[in-house]
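Structure tokens please, single chain.
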Amino acid sequence: MTFQITHHNGQARVGILNTAHGLIETPFFMPCATKATGKSITTDDYQDSGVKAVIANALMLSLKPGMNIIQKAGGLHRFMNFKGIIFTDCGGFQMSRSIFEKKEKNGLYFRSPYDNQKIILTPQKIMEIEITLNSDVAMMLDDMSGYGVSKEEARTAMENTHRWGKECLDIHTKLRKRHNSKQLLFGIVQGNFYSDLRIESAKFINNLNFDGIAIGGLAIGEPKEEMYKSLNATLPLITKEKPRYVMGVGSPEDILECISKGIDCFDSVYPTQTARHNTLLTWKGKIDLHQGKYATDFHPLDRQCGCHTCQNYTRAYLHHLAKINEPAGKRLRSIHNVFFLQEIMEKSKDAIKNKIFAKFKKEFLKAFQRL
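Here you go.
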């Protein structure tokens, strides 16, 4: 069995996802290892911080170092020395980057940032890349329309996503058999912020034989009420028997709200991106290390935290590193924020198992808004 739910508390749930590189308990949060590494943080740091799964970008890895090198290394796990679970995103999100050129019915067109080479990302191409990377979970090719686009544009992107989803599923089934692979394939619901399109897309993707269902195109700059409106329109139409994954959501507040709605998987640059901008997450709220009051504060970032940073360094030292823009400071801050989110996931699972998740969520949010 690929996925089994073990505990419920309201809509919140704990489950077990079975992958080629072992079992992982849901809900879980994946930091980004886009190019086989995080920014200013290593895979060793991730593992030492309790990270059990990361997500990498298949398109970017195919450009550099290239599939031949990763294949010679024995797959992505060995190449980046990560022993946990690896998801690979198709790279469609790069449509929001300068390397994107255009989209057609057959796929997405990019220019390599390394040599300006033209790349056409089709369902066939991305499935071949992801099966070669040998990640545990591959994401289908999707067309993610940006916030604020017209309904016509959103529908075109959704229809591309549906067509590519069917193609990816057919191609992946053949490749998995040919390579004797246990790689899972997740579908992606689109539809932008139009509730009727979200409903249509959820029905379509849910009816295909994917191993899990992701909800894409959220957390892209829209107001929170728009995000949750789209999420609420989608969720009732996604089977409860498969893992549900909200892509791009990473703030503690949003993660807890999504867990309460029955979401199992998350990924985001949020913990490392906020750390690089000197914002630290603690059990009593966010800390802005640039503030002068921390210059002589010789306490840990968070006395409740067991991360490497809190166990070895003071706020004063981290403030100093921030002020001189020392790269080592980015690493230490990133370690703390990543560890903090992993702790939230562990405590959430314990609360669900003990039937007190709503209480845990309420108490956390109240304390988190103190500073």
